Amino acid sequence: MDHRAGMPADEEVVAELGSKVTMEFKHQATVTLAEVAEAAGVGESTVSRVLRNHGSFSGKTRDRVMAAVERLGYVPNRIAGTLASTGSRLVAFVIPSLSNIVFPDVLRGASAVLEENRYQAVFSVTDYDPEKEEALAAAMLAWRPAAVMLAGYEHTEGTVKMLRASGCRIVELLDVDGDALDISVGFSNRAAGRDSAAFLLKRGYRRIGYVGHDLNRDTRAGKRFSGFCETLGAHDAPLADHEILAGASSVENGRLGLEQLLARTPGLEAVYFSNDDMALGGYFHCLARGISIPSQLAIFGYNGLDIGRATPQPLSTIRTPRVATGQMAAQLVVANAPPQVVDLGFELIEGATA
Amino acid sequence: MDHRAGMPADEEVVAELGSKVTMEFKHQATVTLAEVAEAAGVGESTVSRVLRNHGSFSGKTRDRVMAAVERLGYVPNRIAGTLASTGSRLVAFVIPSLSNIVFPDVLRGASAVLEENRYQAVFSVTDYDPEKEEALAAAMLAWRPAAVMLAGYEHTEGTVKMLRASGCRIVELLDVDGDALDISVGFSNRAAGRDSAAFLLKRGYRRIGYVGHDLNRDTRAGKRFSGFCETLGAHDAPLADHEILAGASSVENGRLGLEQLLARTPGLEAVYFSNDDMALGGYFHCLARGISIPSQLAIFGYNGLDIGRATPQPLSTIRTPRVATGQMAAQLVVANAPPQVVDLGFELIEGATA
DNA sequence: TACAAAATTGGTAGCGCTGCCAAAAAAATC
DNA sequence: GATTTTTTTGGCAGCGCTACCAATTTTGTA
Lengths: 354, 354
What we know:
The structure is a homodimer. By secondary structure, chain A is of the alpha/beta class. Chain A has three domains: 33-76, lambda repressor-like DNA-binding domains (434 Repressor (Amino-terminal Domain)); 90-187 and 323-344, Rossmann fold (3-Layer(aba) Sandwich); 189-319, Rossmann fold (3-Layer(aba) Sandwich). The first copy, chain A, is built from 14 helices and twelve strands. A six-stranded parallel beta sheet of chain A has the order 2-1-3-4-5-11, sandwiched between helices. In chain A, strands 7-6-8-9 form a four-stranded parallel beta sheet, with helices on both faces. In chain A, strands 10-12 form a two-stranded antiparallel ribbon. In chain A, helix 3 (44-52) packs across helix 4 (59-72), helix 6 (102-116) packs parallel to helix 14 and helix 11 crosses helix 12 (276-289). The longest helix of chain A is centred in the middle third of the chain and has 16 residues, at 219-234. Chains A and B meet through helix 1, helix 5, helix 6, strand 2 and helix 7 of A and helix 5, helix 6, strand 2, helix 7 and helix 8 of B. Strand 2 of chain A pairs antiparallel with strand 2 (120-125) of chain B. Chain B binds a DNA duplex through residues 1, 3, 30, 32-34, 37, 42-46, 48-49, 52, 54-58, 61, 76-86.
């Protein structure tokens, strides 16, 4: 992406400064629980109990311990604590992307719940690459997390085997069209596609096209597309044409895709986009070209981004519970709930573009 | 031995849900390094050396060890490894928000670099609350990270004290207007504000307004605003009016803010927005009301979001190196570079809205 | 007052791994 | 072939904490 400002300069900076480094960087002698115990004049286990507010101890002891903690600036070592105790309070997210707003939204919902429960979120990004997902999942398991959260159901055999063997909870997010390994929280992408098609048909559009981004990688977008086509087909209005762009979903790609689609297939009445980013690109294309919406061309998106509600004509789309998905997933993990599939559903927003 | 299996809590859960759950719940007996060593017929330290590719060992031994690892499905325990060795490979991010695209972008840049170097990112979200930042920073330090990354320079005294005492690297991101605690990577928000003002003045706009979101919390936006006003003042064109909206920055708020500003102060020639989200809201407002841009009203944003480049008129704004900021920050941490401030600069995009 | 029950405490064995050191094996040298 | 040197190895003491257990103190009861 944006390497402009960084890369070449980065190397220089690092190299340049390498020589004049003296490290005040080594770890400082940190205070340990044993030192706190000594300072407070109590046993180690007592300090441990007080700090975790677990087991019993007198008020007097608690005060003494807390005073010592304060005085020494003690920060418990969770690494040691986790190793010594039962399960960890780490939750690992292995997500396809941080550019697609969907995933920050999920993280946002989840992290709020996790923080409240003193869990810690760790994450890594796969770029929609199943092999990379496998490698990163393996790396995450090395931290012995309480749960691993992944996007969707499509994983390599190796990933599945590894996760199964790990014994930690597995949460598959943002999809319910498939077989869950353990817990799954999301909504039906296929149904979203079908409902979108049904809506367009109900509005009377018949010559309908599709503009999307790489479907092999984003399998959930693929499921929407397939549901969409299915319903069109069932109503004798098969997809008129489609344009799939190579890169990731983006506003620019949506614009480009629509331009190409319209050039190739005149007379389209409506276009379904793989998501709101793409749809907004299409919308802007129409604005720029003076194509009147929805009379000349209807536009339908997916996701229900805020921005789509603030455009001159609100975008017709499907709003997905992204934050809620994260919240629910986190809650189930924290509660150590039994395996289950939670379908949070979605909401069709009529908008003004279709 | 695995004393987890007998935990009261586990039993309860299992009992409660016993009817419909078969428990892949309890922690599975995980393979340990000692078991691998035994299976491979070598010592523990040999396995450790092979797996970390550190120290010396024969090819034959390596093969034996790897075979055993494969066979047993061994996943090293990084918790134990980190505790035993000096210095962790965790990097902690304490960020204000995941809604503001800035932070996912920074995370994206950083996580790519961190993953390459086998570091692990952990994060938590402060909601722009300094108190919460302090609490979360404390929680992160408990994981003994190699570095803590924070947004900007404004932290509570407690946070600063704690970070200083921790002995881990501290990276302050997205700002260079202030005194760095250790490493700092970003760009000057004040200069961005000044340049924006200078640009608008150069274009001949004199009656200029501002629409922004909560400045107390987002201090970087505050610095831009202050730089902006400074330059306007220096050119005898003091800010005509401003509208500050309570909530977070959003497209909707930008729209609302502009509407209110225009109602109150007719005759404005240009409006500066606290960022591109807000600016797009303003842009849409103008589109909807038939206000011609930039002849009737000029619009200027901040951030250089992709979407601003795909609107019918490209947004005039300042593009910030967000991903590069994350990359650079991660590189410096990985390289254990000396304390320094890295100013990555920004780029003014003329666009068509101002 | 004596004795049982309950509430507090401290000691200590690991958790699974790494780092150090010395021992053993292999390679190199005379 | 004997001796050095180098390369490979294994043993084991922690890393800082928690869980278990037993010891101690406090409280309650007869």
